[in-house]
Amino acid sequence: MKNQRHSKGFSLIELMVAITAGLVVIGAAVVFTISTAQSSSANIHSTKVMQDLRSSLNLIEREIRRSGFDETAIKYSSACSDPTDPTKCPVSQFNSLVIASPTCIVVSYDNAKIPATSGTLGAGKYHGFRLVQNTNGVGVIQASLAKATAPSCTSPATDSDWADVTNPDVTNISNLDFSQPPAVGGCTLTNNGIWVAVQDVLVQISGTWTDPASHLVTTRSVEESVRARNDLVSLTKPSICP
Q1: Higher pLDDT residue, 114 or 20?
Q2: How far apart are CA 41 and CA 159, in angstroms?
Q3: Which of 5, 127, 136, 219 has its Cβ near the most Cβ atoms within 10 Å?
């Protein structure tokens, strides 16, 4: 009789306990899988934001470094006899960085590949970068490249002179800041009355991505101090000189 009772299988209570334990294990595995997938998705989007910021910074950095290049300046080498005469002295019209606002910069340089008169401002020689909000309220870095005149920093985000550099579907640009520190030790007044100043620009960019499921905000930032390879040459004392 005892052997017959033991051969009847699990009791209802034992089955319930086993099922409950199994559900707990399955639930933990599901939660772990979902958490891992969400973490992986967040990491992927965080990487995309960083790539968006870094590629934008690289483009801005390259344009600032080229600012001030004058294809004809070499002919004036060691021949700056009269600083008031542009035909005798290389006071370039390209070499002034214009930070129109903390969120907009305009540079210019002589581009030999563009069919325009070398040594003069003209078609394709103005370049700008700015921060605007698009029609959806997302912060976007825009660029105006190879224009004939200096681009307007205050024109609408839909202005055809400007094109998006960052992807508004990936990154919401929360900050773009251009600042020009004083050229301490980088300002020289030559014997013939010409000022030569080193130009540096600190570029800071921040962007965010919001997880639509958890609403958690991921923020990434990059910054770079960029030196223009062509010094500022001026007949008057530049404002960045102490």
Answers
A1: 20
A2: 34
A3: 127
pLDDT at 90 over 60: no
Closest CA to 64 of 75, 72, 56: 56
List the domain boundaries for the chain: 34-234
Instruction: Look at the block and give the residue holding tokens 């010409």.
Output: 194
Long-range contacts of residues 193-196, Cβ cutoff 8 Å, at least 24 apart? 193/83, 193/235, 194/80, 194/83, 194/89, 194/91, 194/233, 194/234, 194/235, 195/232, 195/233, 195/234, 195/235, 195/236, 195/237, 195/238, 195/241, 196/231, 196/232, 196/233
- Indicate if the pLDDT at residue 85 is higher than 70: no
Task: Provide φ and ψ at 36, rounded to 5°.
Answer: -65, -40
Tell me the H-state helices in the chain: 2-6, 12-66
* Residue keyed to tokens 């000022």: 195
Q: Please name which of 74, 88, 97, 81 lies closest in space to residue 190, comparing C-alpha atoms.
A: 81
**Tokens 């034992």 identify what position?**
14
Task: Quickly tell me which residue has 């002034």 as its tokens.
Answer: 96
Q: What pTM, to 2 d.p., does this model score?
A: 0.75
Say if CB 105 and CB 129 are below 8 A apart. Answer: yes
pLDDT in tens, 187-209: 888 777 778 888 899 999 999 98
Closest listed residue to residue 64, CA positions, set 30, 35, 106: 106
- Tell me the torsion sign for CA atoms 100, 163, 228, 123: negative
